[in-house]
Amino acid sequence: MELERSLPEDEEEIFSYLSSGICKGVGPATARRIVERFGAETLDVLEREPERLTTLKGVTARKAQEIAESFRRHMGLRRLMAFLAQYQLPPVLAMGAAAAVRRRSAGEGAGESLPPLRRGVRGGVLRHRRDRHGHGAGCGQRPAAPGGGDL
Prior knowledge:
This protein is mostly helical. The protein has helices at 11-22, 28-38, 42-48, 61-86, 92-105; strands at residues 121-122, 125-126.
């Protein structure tokens, strides 16, 4: 059985989605104002034109950027999960990749060497290279060259 995940499309679904806490800084009241102003275009505005949020009372340019960054992070994770699902890889890999990206962007682990993914495919599923301790490589790491070395 295959599940298909889709984004909310009508205004009430978008309101429920936003007011669920998916975006930092958006509670039910702000979600309602955003959806009332932008309607079915809301998700596009959040992703592509967040500066338009400043037309709402109480939304500064900084808050609009914070909301947009939170939404984009979430959308990136959704897209990564959908990509991994095509190869029957578990969503937990996406979570690990997102955590690694957050750590690196915050300056943590800048000197860490991440074990690469092996590019081999067996039965349509990517195999993961294991490090010398038997730990599998997470997603978001450098791919391995066909011979096993780093690219």
